[in-house]
Amino acid sequence: MGYLQSGTRGTPERWSLAALWCMARTLLLLAGIAAWPAHGTQSIPVEDPASLLKKIQGAARTLDYSGVFIYQQGTNMQTSRLVHMVDGTGERERLEALDGQPREFIRHNGTVQVLLPEKKLVVVEERRIDRFPGLLLGEGGQVADYYSFSRDPGSFRTAGRECSLLYVKPRDNLRFGYKLCIDSETNLLMRAQTIDLDGSVVDQIGFTSLQLSEEVDIGQLQPRWDVNGWRTVSVATEPVDFTSQGWRVAMPPGFSSLTQISRPMASGRSVKQMVITDGLAAISVFIEPFEEQRSRPYPHGAGRNGAINIYGTRIGDHWLTAIGQVPPDTLRELAERTQYVPAAGSH
Question: Which residues of 223-260 are buried (b: 16+ CB within 10 A; e: fewer)?
Fold first, then answer.
């Protein structure tokens, strides 16, 4: 599962009493997430996981809700405020970063406006929206072939609401597992943990407060700033076909292509991006021209940033970078087995 990250982190020299209280409350809430019971022998198999996953996804897309959630990756934490409503024109959403540089993301269906107040800039782009509390990436029809699903028979509370625990365990070593807290009344995803192959929590996300339905005010969708007079830039992307351009991306079993696009880089050259998914986990494959005199080094070999693993390698005159919330060996196999076979006469 992918979660939107934004902003920068800083440490002020002095903290107000309110800030200290908010920090303490946040740490207590996250400690509560970590205290969830481990996957035990009392769990009950889920008979129809595909139907349950569609209900969870449907709740994220069709309900009106507003709340604050915290995303923790390693020692880093980010707090965001989310408002989501549905009207006759489709989904509307406002996501505000509460830490670091001020940022807002205003979405209408698949069109997203990123508001950057320090630059008085609005960046507009078309993108797929599969972030929290959304769960499925694509249709997810084969998820049950690669994960097993079970419920905890107990009842739990989070953000003041009753929820049930869903354990999602991978059937192989190519992907991580998940522990999900599902709202008992609405099926909305309330909290989620990503579990690595050793059983350790590598990241977690969850609401600390939540309002539903009539409790949500449409005025909450309005941006904090008046953007009249701000500069607007549209991010130009174009669909591409990796296969027709000679690329044979070695997808792990169960993964399939979700999007294939080309986007411009700061240098003026373009980078190709393919997003592949098994329905829950996602991997982004970036391919760009290899530059001998590059200003910053390429991410060669394996690397890691919290729960996100990275693997980079050179393929002919190109550089491939694979990034995903999957085990490092999954990315290594993909990168090292991917081939470039250009058509005769192409460059």
Answer: eeeebeeeeeeeeebeebebeebebebebbebbebbbb
Q: Which residue has the tokens 């072939």?
A: 145
CB-CB contact of 315 with 338 (8 Å) = yes
Task: Decide if 282 contacts 291 (C-beta within 8 A).
Answer: no
Cα–Cα dist 74/44, whole Å: 30
Give Cα 336 distance to the centre of its chain: 25
Q: How many residues does the chain have?
A: 347
Which helix (H) or strand (E) covers residue 32, if one does?
Answer: helix 17-34
Residue given tokens 């500069």 in the structure block: 231
Q: What is the mean pLDDT of residues 97-126?
A: 94
The encoded tokens of residue 217 equal: 């005010």
End-to-end CA distance of the chain: 36
pLDDT at 188 over 90: yes
**What is the pLDDT at residue 179?**
96
Contact by Cβ (8 Å): 1, 135: yes
User: How many angstroms separate the CA atoms of 178 and 194, rounded?
Assistant: 5
Cis ω before 297 (30° cut-off from 0): no
Yes or no: say if 193 and 182 are a contact pair by the CB < 8 Å rule: no
| Cα–Cα distance for residue pair 155/162, rounded to 1 Å | 7
For 236-340, the fitting CATH number among 3.30.70.270, 3.30.200.100, 3.30.450.20, 3.30.720.120 is 3.30.200.100
Query: What was the pLDDT predicted at 28?
Result: 39
Residue range 66-97, pLDDT digits in tens: 999 999 987 789 999 999 999 999 999 999 99
Q: What is the DSSP string of 104-156?
A: EEEEETTEEEEEEGGGTEEEEEE-----TT---SS--TTHHHHEEEEE-SS-E
What percentage of the chain's residues is helix, strand, coil (to nearest 5)?
15, 45, 40
Q: Please state which CATH number belongs to domain 17-221.
A: 2.50.20.10
Domain map (residue ranges) of the chain:
17-221, 236-340
